[in-house]
Write a structure and sequence with these properties.
The protein has three helices and 45 strands. It is of the alpha+beta class. It has a five-stranded antiparallel beta sheet with strand order 1-2-45-44-43, with no helix packed on it. It has a five-stranded mixed beta sheet with strand order 14-13-12-11-16, with no helix packed on it. It is 16% helix and 45% strand.
Length: 558
Amino acid sequence: MARKKNTEVLEEKETKKTKASLKKEEEIKEELRDEVKEEVKEEIVEDVKEEILDGGSIMPKRKVSFWAEVKALFIILVIIGLISLGGWYWYTHMSPRKSDPIIKQGEAEKLGYNYSVYSSKNKMEVKYGKYIVDAKDNVLYRLMDLNGNVLFEGEQDYSYIYLDINNNLYVVKDEDAENENVVSLYKLEESNLVKVIEMYEEEIYLSPIVYVDKEDNEYLLGFAGLEYTNMEDRSTVIYSLEGKKAELEGYNLLGDTEITGAGQEFITHNKKYISFGSEKEGLYNLDTQEVAIPATYDHIYATYNNSFVVVKNGKAGIINEKQKKLTSLEYDFIDINNGFYVVAKNKKLAIMDNNYKMVTDFVFAYQGGTYNYKLCCMETNSFVAFKRGSKYLLITNQETTDVTFAKNEAYLISSDGKYETIKEDGYELLDDDIYLLQKDENKVKFYDKALNYKFDIDLTSYDFDLDDIYFEKAGNTLFIPEKDIYYNYTSGEELEKKEIIYENMNVRLEYLDKKINVKVDDKDVHTLVVDSQYPEIEYIDKGFYIVGANEVMLFKEK
């Protein structure tokens, strides 16, 4: 009955529309009678009558039908658009990436290696030299080990990936909203990412607390955020990886880097302790979430040697976590390095080893001024030092914001304290190797990763300033970018043939324009598309790998 009633209502509406339309046509005919001759007018009237008689009430129905068709077409187009948009979103954000990641495998018989190529339609990278990460636009699709075993496959929004000090893998999802911060922590367990904690704070931005070891690997220790109600009333909220929350009232967490706060990691070079303070500084135990050393020092910094450099009354020394003195507090400053220290006294520098024994006397002059323990953002103190094997290299003329030290000298120091003086006007790192500029002679002096002399590059035949160039290395080829000047990196001999080649036993990499042709045992086996022009080989235990734009090629011992 309801359906029949609706039909009658529609018919009544149609009849009303038809009558309205007929009335409108009569008005049109009256106007035509006044404007045209009688015979034309009668002719038009007859035509109109004929049309009305033939079509009846069809004319107004046609009008209704036309706009209904337009409306229907519009709705259809909208539906098609929404379906297409949904399909695109599903494909790019939700479609499963379950294709076999291993696209090619083989054997380098003469080399004694097997090789594999792992591929994806997303960007791939290797983390910690042991995990292959397949991700796009902060969505993680797959985690694999270097044997190609899939550890996780799915879709997980993420911001960072870390290991903890026990080599558990964590995925961090960091969400920001107005005046609030939510951090979710997922742990890899049996091929699943399991949410272990969710941290929520209003008006406090939580940042990772990270332990950085001497190889610059980063390990997650927890999270912290600084809270300010005013400059006198401050505190730090601290979370452990188990979700235990603590508050350090009246102090900021500091760490060993200059930049901390929203969006920045809290860095420490100790697995257990991190510095904190305001006017004075102390040491905080992240395991127990308690103060380990009260804030009684001017400054305190973690070393790579499970000890701490402290500054008190303007003098520096080294202590352990129990505040036992490992050195006296007698130095102007102590420069912390990987495996050794540079110490200063009376505007002279000396080298101290990792056991706090003096390698040299205080014989190296340097530019005086304020020493910054927390360098960042391309800042430099007035000197820099490196250790390679049993040798040290001390460079004392680094440019600072104040003045450049006029004595352009570097010192190559052996473990017995004997040293060689080298004239230099600057240095650059080339992977683990180092080269020194000698501007007066227009030469560049190269040293390998053990600080053994390799060769000189003589640039006197070229008319350009050494300040305007730099060197890069790809495989066994050394070159000056944008100058098309190439050298053999073993001998230093200039090359006429301009090609970039890396050879490791029976593996040959031919670097082309953002492509690498890989040959194994003199056979072409694969071509890698790469993001950078000259990607380097990364070495791991019993093998090496190359990362392409969306591929990883791995060589491992049989």
